[in-house]
Amino acid sequence: MITRSLPQPILCLITDSKRYGYSNIVETVKLAVEGGVNMVQIREKDMYSPDMLVLVEELTSIIDGRALILVNERLDVAIASEVDGVHLGENSSDPLFARKLIGKNMLIGRSVHSLEGAMHAQEQGADYLIVGSIFHTNSHPHVKPMGLQFLEELQMNIYIPFMAVGGINESNVSDVMQLGANGIAVIGAICDSASPGEAAQNLRVILDNVWSSNT
Fold first, then answer.
1. CATH of the domain at 184
2. Helices (H) then strands (E): counts for the chain
3. What sign has the CA pseudo-torsion 154, 160, 161, 162?
4. Does any domain span residue 5?
5. pTM metric for this prediction
6. What's CA 46's distance to the chain center, in Å?
7. Among 22, 23, 168, 183, which one is least packed by beta carbons within 10 Å?
């Protein structure tokens, strides 16, 4: 049984130091958590494991238990740093394999891009999903958006929590949450802002308002 639990609703910040710079990401995470981010996914695909471990330890110190920390893909870093969990890409290790390595106390998330992928991840024991891209996003400019209809399909077929990703911002977060999402995962909506803390706070207010009206 998983001892760590997901917050509700989830506001997840995904890091990208290659795009925004190492020092900027550290400061952005600090401000974003202060503004209401309650999950941070450390997604640094081009970073060597020792360097990533240093980043994880630095962010862990800054976050100081105020948000969950999950490492993208790198099971070795997640295990060594004893973070809250690991997040897997749709074409990476499956949740069953990851569970054998990380044990029962860490969360396992999975990115999915189809209903079939979502149902398979659920069957394999994923604790939550990140689904999309829902709207156009600069992080994946050539990916065709899946649209809100995809969230409707998930709502009818998936029982584990899922977050929407891809072009989520203040103008559309309510639409996403009305279709059963347990939260959102963002990069640009916070990292592109001149005031990351304020951007996080604005998203948090909308999330909480929609969540309270739906429950």
1. 3.20.20.70
2. 10, 8
3. negative
4. no
5. 0.95
6. 18
7. 23
